[in-house]
Amino acid sequence: MRRVFTICAAVTALASGAAVLQLKLAVQEKAERVEALAQQIHEDQEALRVLEAEWAFLTTPRSLQEKSIRFLALMPPSAEQVVSDISRIPFRPRGVEAQEDPGVLLPAHEREEEEKPVQKDKEKKGQSL
Asked: Per-domain residue ranges for the chain?
């Protein structure tokens, strides 16, 4: 009986040792993974700070003006282009009122499109007589 108990205790001790060793290795792998993720987060935060600084530099008014002149051929408005008197601004051409809602004004080109079908209908009536 003593021999069976000793063998069972030895097998249990070996199994427990193997389980503890496997658990230790799993915990070490998890710790390494956590450390790698923490390092990646730190690198990403540093890259984000660099990108934010670059964005702040590139969106300054001076930088945007230089780029608009260089790449878009846009120049700041001259004194002649700036309207100093509001009476020099021309009014928009007056449109026509919409049929459904008299409070709505349509642009002139839509008025012409509405008149064309009416003229075509008149021509068709003349042909049928």
From this structure: 1-74
